[in-house]
């Protein structure tokens, strides 16, 4: 997927940066300061901020699924442990039955 989506987007971003090297004044309201930034920095910076904010919201939204997954993993671990104990108990019982069958009948 990286080669299919990532590389073309990187090429588009590079072409955008080369073609938009002019500056634009950005007012930092409510302060009286103004900063001159290249247009490509405004565009790509806004895109980067949107990407980070979107990833953050997605990560927060997936929290309930991570909690469910962790709970299921704990449940599976407990069930595996119980299965191992039951298997060992079964093997002990089978060995006891086999030993009783091997003994001669009591007189």
Verbal overview:
- The relative contact order is 0.06.
- The chain has helices spanning 2-19, 39-61, 63-102; strands at 23-27, 34-38.
- It starts with a helix and ends in a 5-residue tail after the last helix.
- Helices cover 76% and strands 9% of the residues.
- The protein is mainly α and 107 residues long.
- The mean pLDDT is 91.
Uncertain runs are: none
Distance between the termini: 78 Å
Structural class designation: mainly alpha
> What's the SSE pattern?
HEEHH
Number of helices: 3
The biggest beta sheet, please? 2 strands, antiparallel
Strand order in the largest sheet: 1-2
Question: What's the mean pLDDT score?
Answer: 91
Brief account:
By secondary structure, this protein is mainly α. Helices cover 76% and strands 9% of the residues.
List the helices and strands and how they pair.
Blueprint: H1 2-19, E1 23-27, E2 34-38, H2 39-61, H3 63-102
Antiparallel strand pairs: 1-2
Name the features.
2 strands, mainly alpha, 107 residues, 3 helices, rod-shaped, 9% strand
């Amino acid at each position: 997927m990286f080669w299919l989506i990532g590389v073309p987007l990187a090429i588009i971003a590079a072409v955008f940066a080369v073609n938009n090297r002019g500056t634009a004044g950005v007012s930092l309201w409510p302060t009286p300061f103004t900063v001159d930034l290249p247009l490509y920095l405004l565009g790509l910076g806004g895109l980067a901020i949107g990407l980070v904010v979107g990833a953050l919201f997605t990560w927060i939204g997936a929290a309930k699924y991570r909690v469910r997954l962790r709970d299921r993993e704990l449940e599976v671990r407990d069930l595996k442990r119980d299965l191992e104990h039951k298997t060992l108990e079964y093997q002990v019982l089978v060995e006891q039955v086999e030993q009783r069958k091997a003994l001669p009948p009591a007189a």
